[in-house]
Amino acid sequence: MLEIENLTVRYGAFLAVDRVSLSVGEGIIVGLVGPNGAGKSSLVRVVSGLVQPVTGTVRFRELPLDGIPPHGRVDRGIAVVPEGRGLFPQMSVEENLLMGRYRRGMGNGARALMDHAFALFPILQERRRQLAGTLSGGQQQMLATGIMSEPQLLILDEPSLGLAPIVVDEIGRTLRRLKGEGVTILLVEQNAKLAADVADEIYVMQTGRISHHGAASDLMTDRSVMESFLSVQ
Amino acid sequence: MNRMRASKDMWLWISGAALVIGLALATAGNRFAAFIIGIVFLNVLWTAGMNLLYGYTGLVSMMTAGVAGIGAYGTVKLFLDYGWSFWFAVPVSAVGAAAVGVILGLPALRLRGFYFVLSSLVIQVALTLVFIYFPQFTNGDTGITQIPRPGLWLPGFGAVDLTGPGFEIILGLLALAGVAVVYMIIRSRMGAFIIAIREDDLLAEELGIDVTRYKVMVFFISSLLMAVGGAFYAVYTGFISPRSFDVLMSMNIWLMVAFGGRGTIAGPIIGSAILVPIPFLLQELYQIKDIFYGSLIILVTVAMPAGVYGTILKWWRVRRQKQNTAVAPVAIKRMPAE
Fold first, then answer.
1. Are A99 and B207 in contact (CB under 8 A)?
2. Burial class of residue B302, CB neighbours in 10 A (0-12, 13-18, 19+)
3. What is the rounded distance in angstroms from the CA atom of residue B225 to the CA atom of residue A158?
4. Scanning every residue of chain B, which has its alpha carbon at the shortest distance from the alpha carbon of A88?
5. What is the pLDDT of residues A163-177, one digit of tens each?
């Protein structure tokens, strides 16, 4: 569904992503794990259209995404939940969800989808008139905003960041449920445990390059991978 | 609910119109006071446009005076040299000025934050130079004097005299209309999107909001308000020159929005009503006039960073929230474990 080929991203002299190729098959969860500064978020920003790569192509459903602005990518069915700052703190929870619905119109579908999001995250239903910035568990809200555009591909950048383990488990369950509904997911994570729990396939990224790739079950039993992780975490 | 709000709004606009007409009629005997009121009305219109741009979308434009100038010069040219009706010249030149503003501002609108401010500043300076160095359109530094006030013929009223309070009434209703336009935009879906752009433009972009398109739309609408204000300024004061629309005017309009309360409907009105009359009223004290003006601005920025009305609004919200929690304390709920 998503094919990244030979992707290189530079910020001035700094090489953030170095000739990375990665593919996400339809209907599965792919984990992209790696330590801080490995270039994961740069890769996400290329897919969402905020950063232009030096070389390489990104294809979504066989079509190259070059030159397509971020909103055009949302139209094609890609939703990105960015790292950390994915909310408008001065808006209510409900308004935040509607922002995620922008490209698809605000008719009855929006209401139904919001109810769906509330079903996934009951706490949001209770607090829907509250300002988003006053709630803990912002990642849940961001995830809920992400699915409001009915994406075919949902890209999550560090959804477990700063969450209590019990809430991380909750996020994991939600991702599996979304997968069951037919959403393809690219999960970008430092938390290798979450990725191992939910992903079907895992890519390991270190200093801008993919160092390992394989089925989640194989990779997590691979000592060398685990050690390279344990040593950096 | 919506109908209730609509009827409440209706009453608000009717009382606004009554207030505007009342102010114009009350000062009719005193031309000096009437003139201050008229200039306040013009600034309410200008600050409404700046508020949409700066207060709600987060764009600090320093070229607003230049756009007002294009509207003013365009209208005067069509009105005096080509013999158009003033009432027809205003919309034509306002749309023209807004289009020119958007074309000039388009490269800048793709920039963010401080870079947009700088680019708009450069455009403003360039526009001032155009006003000076193209005397065939603007009469250069000398300016255009003795611009007559237009006549107006209303069905049912016949010819309306616009030399007296009639013109202040028109300026006041125009200002009210400008505020109403901004109010309606903010209440609409578009309002939510531009506020999203102000809060976090990168995130807005990632969620699929076409940020540049909305910025251009907002810029066009606010430029329209600026240009209409400029056109009426020309016939109201009877004199325009490149100095009338220099960067100081851009800064003053921005200042009134920040002073009154950016991103609130009433704030810029309050800012204009307080700051516009000061230079007029302190004319006798010209030695200390600017010191007083400057001190007041510093005082407000330090003590009320959200502006006069913005701070009052915040204080009132906090108070109301405290009362609410005192009546019904919000239970602290755990995140659901399931």
1. yes
2. exposed
3. 44
4. B199
5. 888 888 888 888 998
Which runs of consecutive H residues, i.e. helices, occur in A66-212? 70-75, 93-100, 108-120, 122-126, 138-147, 165-180, 192-198
What is the DSSP pairing of strand A55-60 with strand A2-11? antiparallel
Average pLDDT, chain B: 88
In Å, how far is A118's CA from the nearest CA of chain B? 13
Test mutation, A41, A48, A71, A188, chain B, max B CBs within 10 A: A71
A128, A222, B103, B110, B174 from B116: Cα distances, Å: 35, 51, 14, 8, 29
- Start-to-end CA distance of chain B, whole Å, equals 36
Q: Is residue A105 part of a domain?
A: no
Q: Domain map of chain B by residue range?
A: 2-273
The CATH number covering residue A47 comes to 3.40.50.300
Indicate whether A18 belongs to any domain. Answer: yes
Alpha carbons A106 and A98: distance in angstroms, whole number? 8
Structure confidence at residue B262 (pLDDT): 92
What is the pTM for the complete model shown? 0.81
Q: Which residues of A touch B192 (CB under 8 A)?
A: 91, 95, 98-99
Number of domains composing chain A: 1
Residue of A124 and B128 predicted with greater confidence: B128
A165 inside domain = no
Residue range of the domain that includes A201: 1-77+153-159+185-233
| Among A91, A103, A137, beta carbon nearest to B335 | A137
- Which position has the token pair 């969860």? A29
A106 is a domain residue:
no
